[in-house]
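We were asked to recover a plausible sequence for a given structure. The inputs and outputs are reproduced exactly as logged, with field labels preserved.

PROBLEM: sequence recovery
POSITIONS: 393
GIVEN STRUCTURE:
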């Protein structure tokens, strides 16, 4: 093995996973090689390990397979956040139950997620999932954001995600009750600290931007309220068009597949730790404010929302959904009511995403000694985006 790991991650463990997922007790693992599956800054609340395993079956023919192990952190700020909000409990529930049913509704052509191979609730808490990279999917360059082609794919797949969740909740209303926490939860003082300290750090940075430094004090005063704004946006209102939201809907949590000319032709979601049953506007606002080229959100948001609504309506009809999809007027009204949530995402999530990979830090490094150190706040791209957003207010 090329990476030092705990003693449980061995040939016997991988063999157990493969035998269970393949339903084949003749599988014998010959060798495994492990390495980190993501770079620092690609994900913040788990550790990802890629395992390349060589194994044989009863036929003695040797095979190779790549799988991903997603581990819950065992200490530090990340461990506290994961435990307090129950992030792995949510993701295990989504991947072993809810997403499986949603994928069955949509069929293989519009699969929403990787297949889960194994889940373990303790000692350690983990998921084993198929490696989407081996299927041709990959992440985009997070520093550049999504262009129109990528954005259209993302909005179509998000619409199918929402539509399938509506149908599933109609068939089994208990699904709604399974996802009630999300990212904004009063139980997590550490997550709240990320938002408070992140906003204060942004205010300090804005003070150095002559174009908009007059807003620095206003942003600083918002810091004590920023997390509550997120909580308020997630309050369930029966008058809204409610769905199971992905909840952490940004470009790092999407993988794309490309044709030979480099054009994106397919997209799939990863990371279902923040899923929450609430207004569909939340995922839309999150995606628009975290991951889409500013020029597109400024001039082509209607194109994206039309694509979302068309796919949502078509899919709901195909799945014999009883509920009616929202009209464009209703959808825009919902987005407008929660517009301050977009500010929360722009202040906290965008700087994390836009940080270049060579400078990225994890939560334990960001929240070090009661300070907030995020190199993404120094990004010229962030400065340009926030100044442009300010000029449109």
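RECOVERED SEQUENCE:
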């Amino acid at each position: 093995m090329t990476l030092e790991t705990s003693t449980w991650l061995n040939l016997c463990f991988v063999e157990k996973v493969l035998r269970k997922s393949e339903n084949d007790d003749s599988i014998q693992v010959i060798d495994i090689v492990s390495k980190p599956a993501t770079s620092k800054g690609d994900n913040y609340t788990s550790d990802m390990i890629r395992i390349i395993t060589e194994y044989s079956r009863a036929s003695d023919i040797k095979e190779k397979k790549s799988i991903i192990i997603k581990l819950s952190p065992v200490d530090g700020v990340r461990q506290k956040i994961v435990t307090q909000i129950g992030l792995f409990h949510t993701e295990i529930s989504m991947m072993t139950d809810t997403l499986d049913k949603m994928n069955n509704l949509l069929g293989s052509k519009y699969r929403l997620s990787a297949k889960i191979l194994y889940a373990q609730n303790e000692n350690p808490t983990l998921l084993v999932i198929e490696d989407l990279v081996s299927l041709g999917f990959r992440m985009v360059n997070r520093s550049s954001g999504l262009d129109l082609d990528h954005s259209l794919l993302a909005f179509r797949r998000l619409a199918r995600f929402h539509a399938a969740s509506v149908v599933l909740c109609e068939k089994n209303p208990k699904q709604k009750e399974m996802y009630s926490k999300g990212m904004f939860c009063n139980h997590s003082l550490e997550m709240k600290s990320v938002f408070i300290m992140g906003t204060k750090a942004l205010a300090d940075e804005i003070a150095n931007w002559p174009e908009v430094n007059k807003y620095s004090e206003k942003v600083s005063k918002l810091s004590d309220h920023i997390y509550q704004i997120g909580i308020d946006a997630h309050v369930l209102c029966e008058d809204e068009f409610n769905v199971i939201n992905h909840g952490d809907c940004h470009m790092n949590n999407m993988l794309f597949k490309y044709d030979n000319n480099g054009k994106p032709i397919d997209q799939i979601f990863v990371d279902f730790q923040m899923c929450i049953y609430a207004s569909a506007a939340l995922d839309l606002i999150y995606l628009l404010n975290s991951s889409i080229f500013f020029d597109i959100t400024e001039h082509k948001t209607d194109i994206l929302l039309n694509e979302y609504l068309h796919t949502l309506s078509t899919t709901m009809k195909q799945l014999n959904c009883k509920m009616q999809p929202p009209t464009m007027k209703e959808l825009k009204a919902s987005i407008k009511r929660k517009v301050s949530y977009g500010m929360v995402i722009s202040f906290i999530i965008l700087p994390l995403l836009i940080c270049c990979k060579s400078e990225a830090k994890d939560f334990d490094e960001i929240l070090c000694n009661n300070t907030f150190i995020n190199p993404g706040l120094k990004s010229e791209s962030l400065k340009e985006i926030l100044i442009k957003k300010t000029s449109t207010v």
